[in-house]
Design goal:
alpha/beta, Metallo-beta-lactamase, Chain A, seven-stranded mixed β-sheet, five-stranded mixed β-sheet, about 40% helix, about 20% strand, binds zinc ion
């Protein structure tokens, strides 16, 4: 028996009752808005316990909740890449004390200025803090949003190789990608790449992480892929491999190109609500069969669509 007509009729009845009881059009809008923010995107990761994993040689990855930092164990002390927040730092400190008794954190390195990567750093008491020359200036713009920040004491600019206790780390500057200060890192002797905000394993980035320039971002991903390293460490969500990074790069380009082609149908006139609705529907129908099972596909589809629709229109 085909139950579809019955289900549809029931949905219409329920919908009508809800519509009326919620106060008509404005009530319905309120009800939709009340459900608009996803509660299934961050939650599976927020509950994740602390874990320190050896990736290769002296290089470790510390994962806690939604975030992951890279740690290098050098003869002169520990190096921590990105600190995220004070709760993360507390969990990290406990783990480092257990794994490397008596060793202190000599260096903190910031991948970029975004506050979600640099909070909590003062709690590690590093001797030296390394980051792009503009990091302090950007952080100073947000005095109310951050309190436990250790300022950069050794600034870098462009590509540079730095020896941390005898272990060379290539700092790969990614201009016009995600923020103005973004670095990827390659520890050549262990063949590990740390890919902060540049690698999401079978997942859509949260709200398409604002503050990125699409062409430069894809160039950054391609640069990391071209290193052909044995190990890749992402700063958020699941761990993965170079193949996952390549898949993420392809999804990013596929999504962008799909939205661009929908906007092209409207001669790049983006300020057109009806065209946006048509474009959204068409893009969803094209992308859902390929990426519908990726984490956050439905939760993040609308903001990601809007980001790329606007991005193609403006050129960013
Ligand atoms: Zn970021």
């Amino acid at each position: 028996m085909n139950r579809l007509p019955i289900v549809l009729a029931l949905l219409v009845v329920i919908g009508t009752v809800a519509y009326m009881s919620l106060g008509g059009k404005s009530g319905l809008r309120k009800a939709i808005f009340a459900q608009a923010m996803p509660v299934t995107y961050f939650e599976p990761y927020n509950a994740r316990p602390a874990s320190l994993e050896q990736i290769s040689g002296p290089v470790y990855a510390f994962t806690y909740g939604f975030c992951r930092s890279m740690v290098i164990d050098t003869p002169e002390g520990l190096a921590v890449f990105d600190t995220f927040d004070s709760e993360f730092v507390t969990a990290l400190s406990d783990e480092l004390a257990a794994q490397f008794p008596g060793k202190t954190v000599k260096w903190v390195i910031y991948s970029h200025n975004h506050l979600d990567h640099v909070r909590g750093s003062a709690g590690l008491g590093p001797e030296e803090v390394i980051g792009h020359r503009l990091v302090n200036q950007f952080v100073a713009d947000w005095p109310k949003a951050i309190s436990d920040f250790a300022p950069v004491s050794r600034t870098v600019e462009g590509d540079v190789t730095i020896s941390l206790g005898g272990i060379e780390v290539d700092f790969l500057y990614m201009p016009h990608s995600h923020s103005a200060t973004l670095y990827g890192f390659h520890v050549r002797e262990a063949d590990v790449v740390f890919a902060p905000d540049m690698m999401f394993v079978r997942a859509m980035p949260p709200f398409d992480f604002p503050d990125f320039y699409y062409p430069g971002y894809v160039r950054a991903l391609d640069r990391l892929i071209a290193l052909d390293a044995a190990h890749y460490v992402p700063s958020h969500l699941d761990a993965g491999t170079r193949r996952d990074l390549m898949d993420f790069r392809d999804m990013t380009a596929r999504f962008h190109e799909t939205v661009r082609s929908e906007l092209a149908e409207n001669d790049y006139h983006a300020a057109d609500g009806a065209a946006m609705r048509r474009g959204l529907q068409a893009a969803y129908d094209k992308l859902e069969p390929e990426y519908g099972d990726w984490h956050g596909f439905n939760e993040m589809f609308v903001p990601k669509f809007g980001r790329h629709w606007g991005g193609v229109y403006l050129g960013y």
